[in-house]
Amino acid sequence: MSSEAVQLNRRERATLRAVGRGRAEITCSAEPDLFIDGLACCDQFTAHRLAHLRLVIPLRSGRIGERVPALLTEAARAVLGLPGDARDAVAA
């Protein structure tokens, strides 16, 4: 997926930035829910869209419904213009 092919609104970009700062968790499910700073994301449509576009993924596998750290993919980092490896954001 090229960064030019994905059009994101400001809310989606803000959500990706929160994920990139290590502030997000995602549930392990077909329709993953996103949690920012421990609170459910108020826009689950955005959370589902980012997951289905493979811009946000779980850091590790887990049980169905389990909350695990969320991670930006390389495609998401490219869309945001962020350098480096996706795992760097979680470690920071």
What does this structure look like?
The chain has 4 helices and 5 strands; from the N terminus they run H-E-E-E-H-E-E-H-H. The chain is α+β, with helices and mostly antiparallel strands and 92 residues long. It has a 5-stranded antiparallel beta sheet with strand order 3-2-1-5-4. It is globular. Mean pLDDT is 87; it is low at 88-92.
Defining key terms:
single chain; five-stranded antiparallel beta sheet; 92 residues; alpha+beta; disordered C terminus
- Which spans of ≥5 residues are poorly predicted at pLDDT below 50? 88-92
Shape: globular
Number of DSSP strand runs: 5
The helix tally amounts to 4
Largest sheet geometry = 5 strands, antiparallel
Main sheet strand line-up:
3-2-1-5-4
Number of domains: 1
Structural class: alpha+beta
Helix content: 25-40%
N/C terminus separation: 26 Å
User: What proportion strand?
Assistant: 15-25%
**Would you tell me the overall average pLDDT?**
87
Overall radius of gyration: 12 Å
| Elements, N to C (H/E) | HEEEHEEHH
Question: Any chance you could write out the topology, listing elements then pairs?
Answer:
Blueprint: H1 10-20, E1 24-27, E2 34-36, E3 39-40, H2 44-52, E4 56-58, E5 67-72, H3 74-80, H4 86-91
Antiparallel strand pairs: 1-2, 1-5, 2-3, 4-5
Short description:
With 92 residues, the chain is an alpha+beta fold. It is 36% helix and 20% strand.
